[in-house]
Amino acid sequence: MKESKKWWVLGTVSLAVFMAMLDITIVNVALPEIQQSFAGSFSSLQWVLNAYTLVYAVMLLPVSKLGDRFSRKIVFLSGLLVFIIGSLASGMATSDLWLNIFRGLQGVGGAAMMSLSLSIVTSAFPEKQRGLALGIWSSAVGLAVSIGPLLGGILVDSLGWRSIFLINIPVGIIAILFGMIFITDTTKKQRESFDFLGLIFSTIMIFSAVFALIQKQTHSDYTWTNWRIIALFALAVVSLGLFIIAERKVKVPMIDLSIFKSRSFIGANIAAFTLGAGLYGGFTYLSILMQNYMGYSAFETGLKLLLISVFTLILGPFTWVITNRIGNRWLITIALFIGMVGILIINYLLKVPFEWSYLFPGFILLGISNALVNPPISNVAMSSVAEKHIGMASGILNVSRQVGISFGVVMLGISVTNGYFDSLTSSLKNMTEVPAAMKTQLVEILHKAGPFAGQQIFDSKQAEAYQQLPIFDQIKNIVFQAFNEGMNHANILIAVLLGIGALASLLLIRDKQKA
Hints:
mainly alpha; Growth Hormone, Chain: A; globular
């Protein structure tokens, strides 16, 4: 491929990936306005996020296989078109139900773009330039995750919530035109029969696992032993077993299980999972801390998170230089360790009253970690499999990252909630000057509001009756201290997840020996 053309390919793919990843985070800040527009329930509001995430995760493997079988270029551009149609329909939705359906359609297109982007970039660049190309690709992913709240805040404040979907249309059309011109199809089309059993079992497996996590997230009263949760996880495990059996028997499997013989490939996927669960899952609760407890607007919160994405822009494209010196294995290990230290510093400094200075040092380290870790993870995953398995490897890596994010959001949410309620109950019990009847009423109000309401609890009509009481400020301090305790629990879990990823990378990943 000509020198200039491959950079246009990279630019086109990065633009599409940026758009797909942006749609995962940009919607967060628009939820209050969407709820007001449709007068929807909280559960239907959560599905504005979950519909995209669920379909996106489920479709990553099937579309990557379709790209390998028919044409990566055609499937990628078809995904772009589906994403544009889903964005237009979401922007014109007349109810929360239709919005959720169209968000699922966006998820199909987003999965096609994301899953095939890595294989297209890998095929376009020779191995000696692949690290730089994947660094730029990873910068687009990291920037989209970090800048989503800021861009969403700007669009919602100035043009309304529908603009966050409609903005995708002109961007997507540009990406399609560039893709048609510059992307060269190098796919070797396969004529063998399609692995329908593998498709069915893998879809059921991923759907069940992610949907079980979503059920736990949206139903705080469900325990892990709830029959719905157990049934979904059991279905995922059974589907996994059937999937493995089917893949061993078909001539052309959807996933060639031999790629898991590569320790490096396994290490890269563990790193991607823990990165998604720890760092990207943690963004949700750091945003809640800044908006609901520190009083920052959606725009201001996004501006603070830019501190993380700035490092992605600066360091991302140059990680290949560091990789050439110390190797992918050590770079991934060190980057995850830096992230672990960053979250532990936040945990050590964080106290009530919350201040930006407590987050600032940790955000710098999280930004460096995020910038350094994505390119070598992608590089390891792509370079540790045969050329014919690149599309498959790309799909598996993206599934690991996305399921990791879903897992992290749920598990970190449970950690915050448990720490919050334990601290709240204990502190209110020790308030001997409050009458028992009032204490019971307070506990009921605060438990119903939950840990993520923050300042909204004290601005609500229910709180007006208590505002003149001498204990009002004391109760407010108890709530903030309880959330701090919940964040401590979550921060420790993030550190553990990143530590597991660092250790797995160190033990499993092996760099290719230089000639």
